[in-house]
């Protein structure tokens, strides 16, 4: 990619960027949120067109005007925000748009399902091929996207934050897959903020900052500290120590005998018993698809429960009432910010108002207080360092990290009694991740409760006062932070051992 410039109105997302990747290598692309990495890859995959500059593939100049052009050239991209049709099955999503997808006989789709299932098993990326996408967890949906690219035979594969929702074991399996691709001569570009994974998996590393390419080097020529400094323009220290300002209080959330069934009828939560105390961060570790998503939905009113009792701040929690959860003081950071947390076509003001528009500060006599709301929104955008062309710009144009910061600004401003946070730092860079961690710890230190649900074991170990492990819809481990052992937790996550969770 030669002298690439991309402008969105007056905003320059890429400023004369040069980028080169070789056949048969894994190339990591690093940078803070908003640095221009995803924009570069979107031009390579045909989603955007460059304002200026050239793209060369195998030594020849190419014009990539659409994702179809990119796929024809052997370029495939797995996006951080998945491009899947929610009502179609995994198989239907994967074959959608291919030349042979027209009706080919009564067994055509069944044969395709068998082919796709074989590919998914071969690469260690299992998922139910005949289940609708909306019934799959985020981790399973990501596997569908990766298998879709592999199924279509791409030689040039772009992975945007590919390990965000994978366990350590799944990450190792993915890297084995990437190495097989590399050995077959495929080119893999991986955008990620996990420096350990970059140093483990990549051959070359490029760093972007503020729309410019800062440096490209071989892995042997750099270190995690050097990369972090290049990304943020200063030294970054990832070592954090959990500091409790005061002991935890009485239980804020008490769950007893909770049974929940998923949309497809399978029992996903089986007799859950646990509590979360005031002034405590409880981390939930587990492989994606073991009931974490359904637990978060139950607590935030998005899903009803069949049996059991949930008491919050001494009162029964309303069953299946989102408004009830908000009014009782429960905030929510969903696992998919653009599906469940933000409206991409609306600006910052409207997105910030979603949960507070009924309050006297935000409206009067049923009419929004427009001027007050705009000043309030500008204050929050500045306070949480959300980089946006303006508070009226559609949030779908913001980088993933800035979208997440905007969502957190809304939830934290509510001063919740309980924060239910699913993958709160997914797709965030080093600096933004540290900022989110500070917010979570600040809530705890103010006597609020936090239920942190994450497949990033490092994050769970780093932040939690107590760690619960979920497997098969049950809590199989309940471990104080000072007794936590990575190997033992990994065994619990895999279902290899079970302790008394009480």
UniProtKB/TrEMBL annotation:
Residues 2-235, 253-497 form the ABC transporter domain. Pfam families: ABC_tran. This is ATP-binding cassette domain-containing protein. GO terms for molecular function: ATP binding; ATP hydrolysis activity. InterPro entries: AAA+_ATPase, ABC_carbohydrate_import_ATPase, ABC_transporter-like_ATP-bd, ABC_transporter-like_CS, P-loop_NTPase. Keywords: ATP-binding, Nucleotide-binding, Repeat, Transport.
